[in-house]
Write a structure and sequence with these properties.
A: mainly beta, Pnp Oxidase, Chain A, 7-stranded antiparallel β-sheet, 7 strands, B: elongated
Chain lengths: ~150, ~140
């Protein structure tokens, strides 16, 4: 089975820059989302105000931009395709990194020859880890986009 | 692939087609009736200050390797549209674009973009795009 590394997030302390070589990053801060589904939600709180004189006004104050990743994680401590972690370890690392605001996430999404790079902050982490060993562990993670003009890594 | 160039959003020289997309139209007035107390005349009045008009397109994009529309992958088209919706560096992010429905055109602002795609290389992106219409109402 080939590894699917199309969707990835690397968390970097907010005082540092993303290094060119990802292998130099602490592996507990790198997360892959194989075979996931990505949702992008961009929403302007936009109201058109039309005065009786036909003058138009626009309320452009608020804007929301989020990306949501939904899928299943599996243990990787035996297959070693991605990070060599169990799902429990992976979820715990992701939560611990994001309890404080000390880290910025660098989201990378490949599709064919194109790539999207975004700086994100964690908005919501939801995961369902069933009891016992193995099996699919579903997740639904929501990230707020804070910068979409990120140079490719 | 559905072949349908009925709906198109135009940004510069780039046409974004929505083949097979469902078009929803919406006009909402923030309409209030106000009645002046009878001791000062008792007249009725209408508050018609705010009106919102929008189009919403729902459908899915596929890759276009044959160049029937734009020759782009669905993912490339999504990336380009987001650059317009959010505004490129130095550009006005909220400028208006012509949106064609057949021969009819409206000036619109991209209001909402929602997409869904599987992570890897695939040729289908579901989209829901809302466009706020800023064309003045003729004769309104």
């Amino acid at each position: 089975m080939n590894a699917d590394t199309n969707v990835r997030i690397v968390f970097i302390p907010r005082t540092e820059e993303l290094p060119n070589d990802i292998s130099s990053v602490d592996p507990t801060r790198v997360f892959y989302f194989p075979h996931c589904t990505v949702y992008r939600e961009f929403k302007k709180d936009l109201n058109l105000i039309q005065l009786p004189t036909m003058t138009l006004g626009l309320d452009l104050y608020m804007c929301q931009d989020e990306i949501r990743v939904v899928g299943n994680w599996y243990d990787d401590h035996q297959t070693l395709l991605y990070d060599g972690r169990t799902v429990d370890e992976r979820v715990r690392h992701l939560e611990n990194l994001n309890v404080t605001g000390d880290y910025i996430g660098y989201f990378r999404w490949y599709s064919g020859s194109d790539v999207e790079n975004l700086k994100v902050k964690v908005h919501t982490l939801n995961s369902d880890i069933p009891p016992g060993e193995g099996g699919a562990h579903t997740y639904n993670f929501q990230f707020m986009i804070i910068d979409w003009t990120v140079a490719p890594a | 692939m559905v072949t349908d160039k009925k709906y198109a959003l135009v940004a510069g020289s780039t046409y974004y087609y929505f083949p097979g997309g469902h078009l929803f139209r919406n006009l909402t007035k923030d309409l209030l009736k106000m009645q002046i107390p009878s001791f000062v005349g008792g007249n009725n009045a209408w508050d018609i200050l705010r009106a919102t008009r929008s189009f919403r397109i729902e459908g899915y994009w596929q890759d276009d390797p044959d160049g029937e529309y734009d020759g782009k992958t669905a993912f490339r088209r999504y990336l380009d549209l987001m650059r317009i919706a959010k505004g490129q560096k130095g550009d006005e992010p909220n400028q208006t674009y012509p949106f064609y429905i057949g021969n009819e055109s409206h000036n619109v602002i991209i209001q909402d973009v929602s997409i869904k795609k599987q992570s890897g290389y695939g040729d289908v992106i579901d989209y829901v795009i809302s466009l706020a219409v800023v064309t003045p109402i003729v004769g309104g």
